[in-house]
Amino acid sequence: MKTYHFILCLLTAGLLASCQGKQRTPAVTQSNSVPTFTLKEGTLNTTMSIPGILQPYQTVDLYAKENGFVKTMTVDVGSLVHKGQLLMTLDAPEMTAALKQSQEDLHSKEAIYRGSKANYDRLLKTSRTPGTISPNDLDMAHAKMSADSSSLLAARSAYQLSSDLKDYLEVRAPFDGVISSRNVYNGAYVTPSDKSANKPMLTLQEQAKLRLVVDVPEAATSYFANKDTVHFTVKTIPGKQFVALVNRMAGSLDSQLRSEQMQMDIPNKSKELLPGMFAQVTLQLTNTKKTFVVPQSAVAQNSQRIFVIRVVNYKTQWVDIKKGRETTDSLEVYGALKTGDLLIGHATDEIKNGVMVNALENPKK
């Protein structure tokens, strides 16, 4: 009888131990199974379409350097000109008179200097005979020659200045290009006024080469560098896509637009494109540094936070993240994550933080 009671006690103790062990096992069933994936680093290729404008590679407004009247005009709107070519001449009677006066003054100063130099040379030669010329007379002659020499130099400078100003009456092309605007005609009175007061006489543009200027938003500036390839289209030539390389970047942000200017050089010898055209530019946003890329469905959000759900030891963890670039099915995420984390593929705030789940890693579709 004692043996029977002893065996019964052992069976009861074993049954109690078995029940306690089952209570410590996580209550994970097929009903709370969730599909998951292993987090890895990758790159996300996206595109951005922004407007740009085609500008002349060089453009200059030509103004008069001196007051005068338009005498001759050798070009008109649309004229193709070359560097150094004469575009127009001006007539300034006062300047012509001043040049003639300075020329006459120069000739007069030259004659006076020649006379004083000849007198000094004669006195110097005669003074070699002792007692013929007093030292004072010789010094006076030398001083007179020096003063006349200074006057001659001043007259030459004045004549050179008048001659240079006379050259201002000829307007020449500073580079090869096309005359894009003309605002004066023969007989018009022109002045070297500031640009805000007067329209330019002529506008010259280099159109055989254009600049495509784009303002890149601040958030996208880190994705571009010199020599990157961009594509663009213009409305006037539907169906044709142009290719260009990034040649210049401003290196700073516009304080008002919060954007960085980017320029591309566009060959345009055929004149197919016109300065002033608007272009639609497609930019490839490819990050050279790998980041965490997850499916759109793996990110959940509510009124307070944006998060992904990580599974650690059968238990969920909400991890706050910030979004980066995104496509229709993927996006970059930044937060307290590491390679190899197990994330729920279809996250929702209905999956509470800290609940037990059965992770189905990388399920087949």
CATH class of the domain at 30-43 and 290-361: Mainly Beta
Strand order of the largest sheet: 2-15-19-18-17-16
Task: State Rg.
Answer: 44 Å
Average residue-wise pLDDT: 85
Main sheet specs: 6 strands, antiparallel
> Helix fraction?
10-25%
Which geometry do the CA atoms define?
A: elongated
Order of helices and strands: HEEEEEEHHEEEEEEEEEEEEEEE
Termini separation: 63 Å
Which strand-content bin applies to the residues? 35-45%
Structural class: alpha+beta
Structural write-up:
Helices cover 25% and strands 38% of the residues. The chain has 365 residues and is α+β, with helices and mostly antiparallel strands. Among the domains are: 30-43 and 290-361, conserved putative lor/sdh protein from methanococcus maripaludis s2 fold, CATH 2.40.420; 51-57 and 208-286, Efflux pump adaptor protein, beta barrel domain (Elongation Factor Tu (Ef-tu), domain 3, Beta Barrel); 93-168, Helix Hairpins (Orthogonal Bundle). A six-stranded antiparallel β-sheet has the order 2-15-19-18-17-16, with no helix packed on it. It has a six-stranded antiparallel beta barrel with strand order 3-10-13-12-11-14. Residues 6-11 and 15-26 have low confidence and may be disordered.
